[in-house]
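> forwarded from #structure-qc
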């Protein structure tokens, strides 16, 4: 089982910073558009991991962020993952090139049309609706979403 963070950084122009995963070999997120983040290092809290991963992948230092929920990924292919989901609306610095993909500010209206995991669409909707802190369990069989449970209730 692994712990990760994922962050959707938003600007004041109605855009979200997304990572188009096109650079890594054997990437389970290949060709998908996702937020930025990654795996915990020893002794890190979710916030420690968030700040480090965002800086490493984007060059940005977050100055305002919000912990939105925990997403549990269960799969018949990959190990169980607990993803700590954040949004951010304050940052300093300049974007750098990311070795995992291409960073792009995407108009929020375009996000639902981009290639993404089916379960990501659920938590992106919860973020857009400004849902209170949530627990979302997503069960995959291969790349197909087999079940989704929000705060203990099947969707």
């Amino acid at each position: 089982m692994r712990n990760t963070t994922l962050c959707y950084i938003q600007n004041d122009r109605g855009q979200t910073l997304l990572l188009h995963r096109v650079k890594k070999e054997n990437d389970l997120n290949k060709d998908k558009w996702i937020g930025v983040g990654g795996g915990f290092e020893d002794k890190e809290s979710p916030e420690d991991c968030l700040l480090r991963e965002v800086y490493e992948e984007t060059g940005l230092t977050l100055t305002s962020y919000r912990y939105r929920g925990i997403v549990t990924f269960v799969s018949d292919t990959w190990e169980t993952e607990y993803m700590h989901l954040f949004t951010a609306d304050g940052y300093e610095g300049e974007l750098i090139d990311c070795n995992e993909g291409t960073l792009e500010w995407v108009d929020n209206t375009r996000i639902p049309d981009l290639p993404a995991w089916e379960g990501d669409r659920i938590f992106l909707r919860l973020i857009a609706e400004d849902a209170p802190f949530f627990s979302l369990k997503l069960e995959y069989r291969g790349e197909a979403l087999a079940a989704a449970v929000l705060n203990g209730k099947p969707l």
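QC bot note: The mean pLDDT is 95. DSSP finds two helices and ten strands in the chain.
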